[in-house]
Specification:
1% strand, globular, NCS1 family nucleobase:cation symporter-1, transmembrane, membrane
């Protein structure tokens, strides 16, 4: 299918591009095709099968960090406040995690087979140019959350520093663009740490996640045990106003659906990580231990924290950070705070940094590589002054909520195209050519059938997310959007096309480069 690499000069080193290969003729491409520098560089290229380093343990530690994020604890503890008891919370999380295990596994297999990141994966359904829509929506959501999560981690660091050095409290009283002097110092320190890690590529992120995972699991288990001891060894399994009957069951299923929706971003771009997995078993085992098993462990900690604190003083804890702040022993407070900071950085790196990096690299592949796109993402995450955005409900609800509502339709279309229409037959090299005869050029580089499926599904998702009359369906918005996108696209798909299954190995680069 592919000839040897041409004797052309190498691309500029600043773009991190290998020599651009040329495709031979095929059933799909009647004329030789040159891979486009507008679509191909070393970070967007498929990864070679040999030399991939991500194991099942690495996938597990992704979830060991992300599942135990402070935001997830806030969500699950909110279920207790809503009136669900211990077993109902565990059931809701169990149903949600079972669905997630399936969704993340089929999404992860796509990355392992093709070796490509999400922006390139989106070209299959949306076209080599239309894929910018999907990658920018995913990246846009992530880049704002990167800034916000860095800010939230900086709050924990501020509390920690003031606990150790009380004199620093005077630096936390002023305001410079909405942030105190101490706030700028703590935010800047965490911003620099994350930017440094990303400058060393995906393998450094893999190592950080592997380092952080065990620390998080041990720390949060210890916090739960501390609460249990303070509560006298027993907990309250529900509040005085606990739900029963049909309302209870609706909230259980709504909680399960919302748990899946929390990972709406990850199910889209999980291939960014699994493209470096050694085997499909790595994905399956990492997901199994990291999603259903780890989520049940997470649920147990939630139930102990919520029920224990409720028994102690009749109050419902809102976050593990609240438990940390209540620790009377300063050394233990320091250790727990450091663990929460390590956790938040780990979550931010994988959930909110990788996606915009690939989105920007896909937008400017001749100018940006992974490290440079990481720096651009970090700068954007800083200049938007995320603490001001976080304090604006309108921004969170309408901007991030609106973009989030579009993720379901994108997932439905991409999954239907890959698994149901093409049955996993992908011509990987032709994802990197913008010649009109290319398999994924469609019409001017855009697949009109994908757009025709996306628009009504996206409008439906937005209506469910924001129309008060449809508020009862809001918890299930992601499933409705994904289902509509998949069904409409499946109905519109061209059944006359014959699909080639061509490996990208001949144009692949080393997994670590």
């Amino acid at each position: 299918m592919l000839i040897d690499r041409p004797r052309a000069p190498k691309q500029p080193e600043i773009a991190n591009q290998p020599v651009i290969p040329v495709l031979q003729k095929s059933a799909v491409s009647p004329e030789p095709l040159t891979l486009s520098t507008r679509l191909y560089n070393a970070d967007l290229a498929p990864t070679k099968v040999e030399g991939r380093r991500w194991s099942g343990y690495n996938i597990f530690t992704l979830w060991a960090n992300d599942v135990h994020s402070l935001g997830n604890y806030g969500f699950a503890l909110g279920l207790f406040a809503l009136g669900l008891g211990g077993w109902q919370i565990l059931l809701a999380l169990g149903i949600g995690s079972a669905l997630l295990f399936v969704l993340l596994t089929i999404s992860g297999y796509m990355g392992h087979k093709t070796g490509i990141p999400f922006p390139v994966m989106a070209r299959i359904a949306f076209g080599v140019r239309g894929a910018q829509l999907a990658s920018l929506i995913r990246g846009g959501v992530a880049i704002v959350w990167f800034g916000i999560q860095t800010f939230l981690a900086s709050l924990v660091l501020r509390v920690l520093l003031i606990a150790i050095f009380p004199g620093l409290e005077s630096m936390d009283q002023n305001s410079i663009l909405g942030l105190s002097t101490l706030g700028w110092i703590t935010f800047g320190a965490l911003w620099l740490l994350q930017t440094y890690v990303v400058q060393h590529g995906m393998d450094m992120i893999r190592k950080y996640e592997a380092f952080a995972g065990p620390i998080i699991l041990v720390t949060l288990a210890a916090l739960a045990i501390w609460v249990l001891v303070e509560a006298g060894g027993t907990i309250a399994w529900s509040t005085a106003d606990h739900l029963t009957g049909g309302v209870m069951w609706r909230e259980i299923f709504a909680g399960a659906a919302l748990w899946v929706s929390i990972y709406a971003t990850f199910v889209l771009n999980f291939c960014d990580f699994t493209r470096a997995c050694k085997t499909r078993k790595s994905i399956f085992h990492g997901n199994f231990w990291g999603i259903p098993i780890n989520v049940l462990f997470f649920g147990a900690i939630v139930v102990v924290m919520a029920g224990g604190q409720y028994k102690i003083n009749g109050e419902i804890v809102a976050s593990p950070a609240d438990v940390v702040n209540a620790i009377p022993n300063t050394p233990l407070l320091v250790i727990a705070s450091l663990a929460l900071i390590i956790l938040t950085v780990a979550v931010n790196l994988m959930a909110n940094f990788v996606a915009p990096i690939y989105a920007l690299t896909n937008l400017f592949p001749q100018k940006l590589n992974f490290a440079r796109a990481g720096l651009v993402s970090a700068v954007i995450g800083l200049v938007i002054l995320p603490w001001n955005l976080y304090n604006s409900p309108a921004v969170i609800n309408y901007f991030l909520g609106g973009l989030g509502a579009l993720l379901g339709p994108l997932f439905g279309i991409i999954i239907a195209d890959y698994w149901l229409i093409r049955k996993a037959k992908i011509n990987v090299p032709e994802l990197y050519t913008d010649a009109p005869s290319g398999a994924y050029y469609y019409r001017h580089g855009i697949n009109p059938r994908a757009l025709a499926a996306f628009l009504p599904a996206a409008l439906s998702s937005l209506a469910i997310a924001f129309a008060p009359v449809l508020s009862s369906l809001a918890a299930f918005a992601w499933f409705i959007g994904a289902g509509l996108g998949a069904v409409i696209y499946f109905a519109l798909a061209d059944r006359t096309v014959t699909f080639d299954d061509v490996s990208g190995e001949s144009i692949a680069v080393e997994s670590v480069h």
